[in-house]
Amino acid sequence: MSAARRGTERPSVAGTGAEGSATVPAHEPADLPHPDAGPEPLDRPVGALTLPRQRQDSVPGTTVLTLLVVGDDATGAFTAPYFQEGSGPRIRVLRARNLTAAGRLLTDDVNCILLDLPDVLERLPEVVRIAPGTAVLVLSDGNDEDGRAAEAVRIGAQDHLSRDAVDAATLTRAVRYAVERKRADLAQRQLTESRLLAQENSRLERGLLPTPLLQGATDLRFAARYRPGRSRALLGGDFYDTVRTPDGTVHAMIGDVCGHGPDAAALGVELRIAWRALTFAGLGGEALLRTMQDVLVHERADEEIFATLCIVDIAPDGDSADLHLAGHPAPLVALAGREPGLLPFEEGGPALGLLPEAFWHRIRVRLPGDWSLMLYTDGLIEGRIGEGTLRLGQDGMLRITSRLLAAGLGGEELLDAVVTEARQLNGGELTDDVAVVLLERRGA
Q1: Among 29, 90, 158, 389, which is 20 to 30 Å from 259 by CA?
Q2: Residue 202, C-beta contacts closer than 8 angstroms, at least 6 positions apart
Q3: CATH 3.40.50.2300 fits 3-190, yes or no
Q4: Could you tell me where the DSSP H helices lie in 7-139?
């Protein structure tokens, strides 16, 4: 039997006076009441996964770790108010006879719990549940031939401490290592949870991006590029879609919800899905826009939110289109043998959600021969040019696209080049969401 178990020796305790007695600072409790209540559930709500605070001792540069000892402490090894070994952290000791009393002492300042209970394996899961951010040590007997200490570690304790080895050095080291292991465990768990959440969000956002439905439009090529302004996101407040209805009409749409973040992205998805459903139901023109506005008004978080929208309905023969603009930039069109330009925008209407009695006029557009039609959001044209305040604007975007078209670029290659050049002129990533859709007819 060890000296600590016989009670003939005491652990090396900093701040002792005469041998066997401790000089207790005024702010340290010499002892704590030991309620006689039985092993009832901990009187403490389940906490979040946060680490306990480390206190600073009155001695500058000395860290204080608080240890809560739960049990009868029959050996008398933990009657001292604190343990310390050399220049290591100072271990402040609190005592509770049972888990009911421990629940009252388990504050955010407790860094480690030492369980000295006969039914420790039965009580340990409750301790881990009620104190998920606190390190736990288990006091074991000798060589642990029955494997109870190893089982305790498997259940959730950070380590076990033999009764035969309770001295200042061993306890200081055990508490310090247990706290660091718990810190590492929590950091790893949070990292894993963040990674899983990011993967789940990516799958969700990727599933919400549209798949164009253009079966039967053999002479039409489609390309799109999407860059959310939010860091590490796949979806922003911009939205687009393209479908072909049974009558052969190709309907293309692009829009932008004001604001940033997941709320704007969610509303953009709702508007896109509503547009696709209404289009397949046969609604179009001003009636469709008015219904879209109703959807926006009912789904938006507050009355300040609005959305811009551009809709192009291309006739089955591909030679003409109807354009509706709701506060959105006019598309770029490149006709064979002509300089690229912007479609008419003078008769466009206001953005959705601004005026309850708004009107959106139809703009008829001729598209003879081969053509390219590029729809975009304002995130592409609002990037800066150099260090000043000058913006790229529609004129700058038109110049870039005209030069790239003249160089023979088309499809996704053209969109990649346009967005890349806009980023380079901006001196880095564009801060707003960017969506670009390209429709091309060849061989007409």
Answers
A1: 389
A2: 234
A3: yes
A4: 99-105, 120-130
